[in-house]
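Observation: inputs received (chain + coenzyme A).
Thought: call the complex predictor directly.
Action: predict_structure
Action Input:
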Amino acid sequence: MSGKSLRGPAPSLADACQPVPETAWVYLLRCPDGSLYGGWTNDLARRLKAHRTGKGGAKYTKSHGGPAVRLAYAERCADKSAALKREAAIKKLPKAEKEALAAKWTADNRITIRMATPADGAAVAELYNWYVLHGTQTFQYRLSTAEEYAANIAGVLEKAPFLVAITPDGRLQGFACAHPWHSREAYAWNVEATIYCAPDCIGQGLGKRLYTALLELLRMQGYYNAFAIVTGENKASHEFHKRMGFTKSFVEKHSGYKFGRWLDVVYWQYPLRTGDAPPEPVRYRLTEAEVVSILKKVNS
Ligand SMILES: CC(C)(COP(=O)(O)OP(=O)(O)OC[C@H]1O[C@@H](n2cnc3c(N)ncnc32)[C@H](O)[C@@H]1OP(=O)(O)O)[C@@H](O)C(=O)NCCC(=O)NCCS
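Observation:
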């Protein structure tokens, strides 16, 4: 008998979630009346939402902004105490200096969405691996390699878009792509959509930009349905898919096991095209002009 195990992955591999590194942020928000509001938080996405909805946000943003406040500056600090000190220092700055901070941050973090190339494999693997180690958004236990993602990107691009969101200095802040849904021919008009934003970048509108472009490109190619498979406990992704126009389709109970617990998965469906007429074959390759026209809309 060979020494190699014929069993699947050992459950122990999925028992321990790597602790998420402590985060602390100071931030500035731009209110619709033009004023800047400063604060600190250990969860930027949740704090931003609280300011926008008025539920748990500051009195100032409630009366000066509401849903229209947007992030104007964010700085990661070592811990809460460092963030509090930095917050106090920023609040003391003259208005012109606060404006300069915000202007530089906005320029440094202007994100462009473009089609990926296999050269993006290392950055995509790094982003994805954060979720492999820390979250149940993915059911993968094993870290992906740069080479695997380079091959994955090349494979996806044969039939569908693979989009990446990049800052001016080349940092990857998110990706979205689509894989064939099933291999049998009758499924040829369906894809499974995937999206991951960098943990520091969630809740700031990037997911919407990436998915808007992805869904528009898929529609142009002639696909009929985009499906998303979302872990039961991933509330952010359920809300996100609902907001993007997906409809909940069905639930698979106890579908996966990770970090010591059983997890459900929920299937979401987005109709890219409707109608009973026979479909045209999917166009695996769009023209450069078609891709540019869609990306222009989400990059302007
Ligand atoms: C899910 C994810 C892609 C969403 O992207 P995002 O950039 O955070 O979302 P956006 O800021 O673009 O939000 C788009 C819409 O979804 C809503 N939304 C997003 N997260 C939400 C949350 N946690 N609660 C409520 N609504 C939420 C927003 O309010 C917004 O609605 P609006 O258009 O009415 O303003 C992102 O959070 C992420 O990458 N999460 C980790 C990885 C993951 O779960 N991937 C999906 C695997 S299935």
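Thought: report the result.
Final Answer: The domain at 24-108 is CATH 3.40.1440.10 (GIY-YIG endonuclease). Residues 131, 137, 195-197, 202-208, 228, 230, 234, 236-237, 239-240, 243 surround coenzyme A (CB under 6 Å).
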